Amino acid sequence: MGAVRNKLIQWALLGLSLLQQPLLAFSAESAYVLSDSIGYGLHLGQFEASLQARLGGPARISYDGGRSITAAGNQLRKSALESVAADRNFIAGASVIIIILGMEQHETSFADSQRELMLQLRRIAPRARYYWVDIGATISVHVPNWNVRNKTIYENADRLGYTVISRYKAIFGAGADPLNIRPGQNFPGWGTEPGYGGEGNVHGFDAELAQAILAALDASDELAACGRVTQLRSYVLGDSIAYGLHMDGLALQLERRLGAAAVINYDGGRSIISPGSHIGKSALESVEIDREFIAGAGVIVIVLGTNQVEPSFAQSQMQLMQALKAIAPKASYYWVDIGATLAAQAEGWNVRNKTIYDNAARLGYGVISRYRAIFGAQANPLQIMAGQVFPATMADPGGWAPDNIHGASAVLSKAILEAVGPGGGCAGN
User: Fold this and answer.
1) Looking at 172, 190, 223, which one is the last position of a domain?
2) DSSP-assigned states of every residue in 73-124
3) Per-residue pLDDT for 397 more than 70?
4) Minimal CA–CA distance to 313: which of 348, 340, 345, 267?
5) What phi and psi values does residue 183 have, to the nearest 5 degrees?
6) What is the pLDDT of residues 164-180, one digit of tens each?
7) Which of 26, 29, 161 lies closest to 95, judged by CA?
8) Three-state DSSP state, 145
9) CA nearest 171: which of 149, 145, 189?
10) Could you give the CA distance from residue 407 to residue 47 in angstroms, rounded to a whole number?
11) Residue 189 Cα distances to 172, 173, 201, angstroms
């Protein structure tokens, strides 16, 4: 009963606490929230009123407990796709669309259903700003599948064109990892929610989620308010290191810095010529797939070389740069050196880093040093210290000696942002 009482108090106070937030960059925009039962909590907390006060236009929350993208819920008895069709006229005028779906696991393929939903929404509201809220629930028996779904939500953000808002971090703090939900962990100060077959919680902390949503809207307004003399699209082509940059939010940071859309194309284990384990495309194949976006890019960052499978790295480098420059001859190019320290591969990476630096002038790119970003300005990327662990980082798992491949994404993001310059966007973000 204590948990229920706390929940009701939170819902009652939600509207008051949020309506007291400062209004930044007021504009007459409407908002549409498409949700499962989490949206019902927002509705009880008067979040429509908060959105109206924040955006200046009407707001609507379409919620249905137990619904998924393709399956109907218990109140409206409409799937998310059916609600999109029913609310078409309102959606067509919406500037902000927030999606809170994924917890109910009825879809045969969540990724396919995501794509279908975004396709339908974008047909109706092509110019809206889209946001997807990750899964923050912790019921122990469902957590393994929810972790997989959160991975899909984050991985599809760039591809499908939405910004992720983390309910999990809103509940458990900025350091919480939504890809590693702790099974059965109760929300702070709460007991286990009954009726779900396991320890943990589903509902609650609606005020915290509402604040996270408003913060995301504030960040978008900050971007729109920047005085952009130049607007530069940016494209990052990489392996699993680029996945870390994606998770660190580099795409949004590049958009703020350069004033235009950014895409990060990553694939763990890929090289220039061989596919990786996620999208199954080599870097060269991804260039062809993303040709249209690349053609309009003013900044292109390459994060490749860690996976040593090319017979000739120098030859593959030349092939990739020729393919890119044939599409975007006027873009500014940057290549990130290898900063990994696995003892068994360090010697080969030293050779590759020498190639990266030697070819910079010849192939027309600037080098951004991941190795120096991690170990300091005096570190020598041509003499990687084999087996050295990244500062304040644990060794990567997998049975190797104490050393790293992944991590330190924030410092690399910072180095990339400094290299590409303030552009016409918001310097210092």
Assistant:
1) 223
2) -SSS---HHHHHHHTHHHHHT-SEEEEE--SS---S-HHHHHHHHHHHHHHH
3) no
4) 348
5) -60, 130
6) 999 999 999 988 899 99
7) 29
8) helix
9) 189
10) 37
11) 11, 14, 11
CA separation for the pair 201, 188 (Å, rounded): 10
Q: State pLDDT tens for residues 15-59.
A: 333 333 333 333 478 999 999 999 999 999 999 999 998 888 999
412: tokens are 């690399």
Asked whether residue 226 carries a pLDDT value surpassing 70, the answer given is: no
Express as a percent the part of the chain with pLDDT over 90. 59
Stated as kind and residue range, the H or E segment containing 3 is helix 2-19
Among candidate residues 210, 132, 214, 130, the one with its CA nearest the CA of residue 171: 210
Rounded CA-CA distance 214/50 in Å is 9
Q: What is the pLDDT of residues 102-154, one digit of tens each?
A: 999 888 899 999 999 998 998 898 888 899 999 999 999 999 999 999 999 99
CA dihedral angle for residue 118, residue 123, residue 129, residue 130, rounded to 10 degrees: -10
Q: What is the pLDDT of residue 257?
A: 83
What pLDDT score does 422 carry?
A: 60
Position 248 confidence tier, pLDDT thresholds 50, 70, 90? confident
345 and 196 together in one domain: no
Are 217 and 240 in the same domain?
Answer: no
Collapsing DSSP to helix, strand or coil, 292 comes out as helix
pLDDT at 425: 45
Do residues 184 and 140 make contact, with C-beta atoms less than 8 angstroms apart?
yes
Strand partners, 97: 32, 130
Same domain, 330 and 347: yes
Task: Read off the pLDDT of each residue in 302-315 and give the average, rounded to a whole number.
Answer: 93
User: What does the mean pLDDT of the chain come to?
Assistant: 85
- Which CATH number belongs to the domain containing residue 101 in this structure? 3.40.50.1110
Q: Is 13 in the same domain as 68?
A: yes
Residue with tokens 């108090």: 9
CA–CA distance, 210 with 31 (Å, rounded to integer) = 13
Q: Provide the domain limits for residue 273.
A: 230-420
**C-beta separation of 66 from 203 below 8 A:** no
Sequence-distant (6+) residues with CB within 8 A of 203 are: 7, 37, 38, 41, 193
Pairing verdict, β 262-266 and 56-63: unpaired
Q: How many domains does the chain have?
A: 2
pLDDT at position 319, please?
A: 96
Distance between CA atoms of residues 328 and 234, nearest Å:
11
